[in-house]
UniProtKB/TrEMBL annotation, chains A, B:
Domain of life of the source: Eukaryota
Protein name: Sodium/hydrogen exchanger
Protein's cellular compartments: Membrane
Main location: membrane
Keyword S-adenosyl-L-methionine: no
Keywords annotated in UniProt: Antiport, Ion transport, Membrane, Potassium, Potassium transport, Sodium, Sodium transport, Transmembrane, Transmembrane helix, Transport
Residue ranges occupied by any Cation/H+ exchanger transmembrane domain in the UniProt entry: 27-438
Amino acid sequence: MWSGGLTLDDVNNDHIHIVSISVFVAVLCLCIVIGHFLEENRWVNESITAILIGCITGTIILLWSKGKNSHILRFDQELFFIYLLPPIIFNAGFQVKKKQFFRNFLTIMLFGVVGVFVSSAIISTGSWWLFPKIGFAGLLVRDYLGIGTIFSSTDTVCTLQVLNQDETPLLYSLVFGEGVVNDATSVVLFNAVQKLDVSRLDVWAALYVLGDFFYLFLASTVLGAATGLLTAFALKSLYFGRHSTDREISLMGLMAYLSYMLAELLHLSGILTVFFCGIVMSHYAWYNVTENSRITTRHIFATMSYIAETFIFLYVGMDALDLEKWKMSKTSFKTSMGVCGTIILLIALGRAAFVFPLSALSNYMNRSSERTSITFKHQIIIWWAGLMRGAVSIALAFTQFTFSGLTQNPVDATMVTSTVIVVLFTTLVFGFLTKPLINVLLPHHAMENHHHQDPNSPNAELKLPLLNFEEHATTNFLRAESSLSMLIERPIYTIHFYWKKFDNTYMRPIFGGPS
Amino acid sequence: MWSGGLTLDDVNNDHIHIVSISVFVAVLCLCIVIGHFLEENRWVNESITAILIGCITGTIILLWSKGKNSHILRFDQELFFIYLLPPIIFNAGFQVKKKQFFRNFLTIMLFGVVGVFVSSAIISTGSWWLFPKIGFAGLLVRDYLGIGTIFSSTDTVCTLQVLNQDETPLLYSLVFGEGVVNDATSVVLFNAVQKLDVSRLDVWAALYVLGDFFYLFLASTVLGAATGLLTAFALKSLYFGRHSTDREISLMGLMAYLSYMLAELLHLSGILTVFFCGIVMSHYAWYNVTENSRITTRHIFATMSYIAETFIFLYVGMDALDLEKWKMSKTSFKTSMGVCGTIILLIALGRAAFVFPLSALSNYMNRSSERTSITFKHQIIIWWAGLMRGAVSIALAFTQFTFSGLTQNPVDATMVTSTVIVVLFTTLVFGFLTKPLINVLLPHHAMENHHHQDPNSPNAELKLPLLNFEEHATTNFLRAESSLSMLIERPIYTIHFYWKKFDNTYMRPIFGGPS
């Protein structure tokens, strides 16, 4: 057991602990090597590889231990939420192409926030209506609400590995942006629903959830931005690089982690906090450190995120063979499959219910801007990209239906195993089909979908995402005659314009930026 | 409690956990900032700062919790040996100036291996003889043997921060090398002593410990070198950088950690394994990765080691105020001070007993080489550098005298508190005197003891340690006429010469190296 404290059978436990870590690290290394070989083969991506290797390892351990157990580490929401998720989300914020992200901010928020509300409403009511019909009863109202948010968190890694961000920047930015915001929204909504008094569900309760949600969203964002700015200010005014690059790197990493922990401490959303902390750090703090620290932070945050992601997928694969849970769930095979099928159907339905209408809305809002509109083919890809379910779903399902990873209730056990099946099925089957689907929908794209990285200029990747931010903003807005009419017609662009002005005049001189 | 698994009072425990981590991370950030301000002021170094901040934080928590407890994290040998020590030792191996290290290999081994044997024999017998005389009884033979190894592990960080490695390369290399080898030796010897059958202590038992020690030493070294070579070979033949720098960095980090865990699994010395793994990786593997990965690995391993070190010192400071242990130890203040005084005296004596004779031996062995001999002033500095006791002593004391960090036995509690006092006293008092002492002994050195690092050429530090290795070896040995007479007169140089030949002809073409 990974985070198992020292218990009375200390020596023995210590040894098991060391065995677990060794096996896990060895398998992680194996994943890295195999992932490297499969890089050319874009049919199978790294998530699928990690899950499959996890399944194989699980089988071997199962045979080794003569059917006693399949996982060497018990899935632990704590491990997931305290150690694995923060680096992934922080890195997403740190590496995000800010230009695209902020240009499409409103659309991303529509998909990522409104989308989760729509999707979880549909999945909740759908499962509440359909589960008893296929012979699966025993869930409480709170559980149905939980199911809605659990299956509204998407996993867009598969799609992002196939999309080319230079050819279809808008599409890439939407899928990526929604992926991050969606994770945060599901977790925040999940927590808001948990606090709900289910005995009286009325309009006031719904409004309360909504209000709670917006409070969490805003407060978390402010906390993240404030921590990022504080770090940037400290790095700029003290100039740590004078003595030691180690201190700069430590401070950036530790402050980011502190922002996450503080948010959790204040019962806010750590995910959102650390995401915005990452954005602010890459926008200001990153410019205040030495060249070596810049290279190191870029790479090390990406590496940590990569390891954490592989770790999670590996674990999901391993956990699929957890016999205890399978035995505990007394539901028949038929009902089990019925539950999974229903959930997958509801996921597809719930996602269709917001992707197409919201895309139309976004196209309407951007009708007068230079932005290309979201074509129907793109809408299908966006819809598809969000059908995969990942580690966040599993972690939330464990939180909802188990107690420290264990459950005695057969209904709860069925829900946990169903979640694992849904995640495996969507990642493996839908993930496998992503490449062919995109090839059919974007045929030009198919021909040169490997984004070749010139091994001789590894610096290129470091400079691209951050530099051509300002030119774009200014050239676009010099044409603006009246700021008021602009605000009405192109609200995001106008906000963006004034933000750039403010940023250049006040923020950058204090907190640092490209000179 | 840091690594506390999920228990029944889960929610509450989770919250305490988050509070602990937040406070700890915040205090770590504070240490980094204060350490930066004190960099110019070389009287107080970073270890002392971290210990003092730990004490202050401990006092605040003590007052806050109304005298209930002073630490937010229970000291945990597992946390120390599984998570904090490996990055520190790996980094030591990775950044070691291999030229100096291997040139002085025999002397370093004399100090680091023979020295520990001498010192622990003196401390063991000394405490066995003196403790009952000052009214402290109740320890078993096994405990006295344990005490010998516990107080033989040195902490040379303080001295290394003051020494200038360009002015006194020999001295720096000896103090650094001994520090690393000594840590490993103490832990290996401690484990060897633990396995000893204390009921019959005779020459055979001593020989058995010695044999066990050499087996552990050799097997650990071979395992570390093998893992390093495997990594180098994988990186060279697969060329991961083609696709992703993240994979290269992950693989280096994970393989290093795997070597440590494998050694622990096979009951070898993880410290030695990961140290040699670090040396081999920086000698071969490091040349097989992209430029960005080189910069990133150099800096990130140093940063991780820096954070782990600060963490440990901070913890030691916080633990000093653990009231439980103070109450448990029923020994009078006078006896307590007597025990600590005796230990400190024995440490000084035990160290003097090997530093001066072994220095003379080393000078005799190197009489015909160009190496400058170890002057008496240098000998005093080497003696002084090893008087400080650090985290390894505390971790070993916890292993010997507590059970999962708790103890019910007053005698054991006294030994734990005494160890904490000895570590605090030696680090604070001796550490504080290090700078003045070196100023007196090496007056030239005192004038320019800040090793200035040009902020404009941060690359310099990366290239220096690795490049001028071969020229030196070859120029020295072209003069050699007969290899046999050389082997007798200058054994280390000869071995070095043949090793370089072998390395250039066979190893580097397979495993990579500077081109």
